Amino acid sequence: MSLAEAKAAAREAAFAARAAAHAAHGPGRAGHLSEVLAGYRGVPLSGYWPIRTEIDPRPAMEEAAAHGPVALPVIEGAGRPLRFARWEPGCAMVPGPFGAQVPEVQDFLVPEILIVPLLAFTRDGARLGYGGGFYDRTLAELRAARATLAVGFAYAAQEVARLPLEPTDAPLDMIVTEREVIGLRAG
């Protein structure tokens, strides 16, 4: 089986596991994520607007926005890193690529913490995304400039023993689930 086939199979299984967790728990609780972010008050942060069955980080993002800048990722094209548009609770939103909402007014900033959506993760920080490489490219670019903390946010049921990886797959620094915080490395 090729790496591409192995990743496709892993994605299929991960979509199913996440969908089952979402059905069992609803959009999820951001309690542990809020606790983690409380230790970084005022640090520029990027969250994400949940799509499909992703766990919802918006309650934690709303809390963080009271203390510092929060942004949402904006996809500007295939093969390009993400940019991050400032977001505030209640701001006007418009549809972006892949169904995620983005701020209507795009005032860009550079986050130091990224809450990263995912399909599956391993306890040692590997992440399986949707396959576009947007977060991998973005994290490589941000980490080349300064320390950047990548926090995977997922249901505990999305944990797997191992994932097919490529050298360009960016690792997570921490994983937060509805059950626990898995600390891995400093950003």
Task: Give structural notes.
This protein has about 190 residues and is α/β, with parallel strands linked by helices. The chain has a single domain, classed as Rossmann fold, CATH 3.40.50. It contains four helices and twelve strands. The strands form three sheets. It has an eight-stranded mixed sheet with strand order 6-3-2-1-7-10-11-12, sandwiched between helices. Strand 4 and strand 5 form a beta hairpin. Helix 2 runs parallel beside helix 3. The longest helix has 23 residues. The chain is globular and about 45 Å long. About 35% of the residues are buried.
Order of helices and strands: HHEHEEEEEEEEHEEE
CATH topology: Rossmann fold
> How many distinct domains?
1
Largest sheet: 8 strands, mixed
Catalytic activity: (6S)-5-formyl-5,6,7,8-tetrahydrofolate + ATP = (6R)-5,10-methenyltetrahydrofolate + ADP + phosphate
Protein name: 5-formyltetrahydrofolate cyclo-ligase
Organism: Roseivivax lentus
Keywords: ATP-binding, Ligase, Magnesium, Metal-binding, Nucleotide-binding
Task: Provide a quick synopsis of the model.
The chain is α/β, with parallel strands linked by helices. The chain has four helices and twelve strands.
Keywords:
5-formyltetrahydrofolate cyclo-ligase, single chain, globular, 27% helix, alpha/beta, Rossmann fold, 187 residues, 4 helices, 5-formyltetrahydrofolate cyclo-ligase activity
What is the element layout, followed by pairings?
Elements: H1 3-25, H2 31-38, E1 45-46, H3 58-65, E2 70-74, E3 83-87, E4 93-95, E5 101-103, E6 108-109, E7 113-116, E8 120-121, E9 127-128, H4 134-145, E10 149-153, E11 174-176, E12 181-183
Parallel strand pairs: 1-2, 1-7, 7-10, 10-11
Antiparallel strand pairs: 2-3, 3-6, 4-5, 8-9, 11-12
Protein name: 5-formyltetrahydrofolate cyclo-ligase
Pfam families: 5-FTHF_cyc-lig (PF01812)
Keywords: ATP-binding, Ligase, Magnesium, Metal-binding, Nucleotide-binding
